[in-house]
Amino acid sequence: MSFHVYLSGEIHTDWRDEIQRGAEAAGLDVVFTAPVTDHDASDAAGDHLGETPSQFWRDHQSSKVNAIRTRTLIEQSDLVVVRFGDKYKQWNAAFDAGYCAALGKPYVTLHGEEIVHPLKEVDADAQAWCTTTDQVVEVLRYVLKA
What is the top-level taxon of the source organism (predicted)? Predict the structure, then answer.
């Protein structure tokens, strides 16, 4: 069975690469997609549409352009992995998890124990809470090969 997996969330570490390497090493038939992970490019996604009067409107404009990719790839995925890092608050990742919940799209969360409490509602709807990328790969292995 082939799977499409969207890797949502934190963009400051190589967790996506770890999962992709692990899935490849396990021989899993997985197609991975992700949001734009270049922070500056993401922030400027709507700049070509014209000047904005404030940072709020620049962010608003760019978030709508980014949403074209995000929504499309989440809707096309079989599973979404939502990563919350410890350094920054990933509000966009929480939004992606909520979007998955609204769609009935299966998702797993990936984060440390120190942020279990603030993510209790997000984790409550997840099919699994993982603390390591190896655990994510094991979930994929089970789903695809069991």
Answer: Bacteria
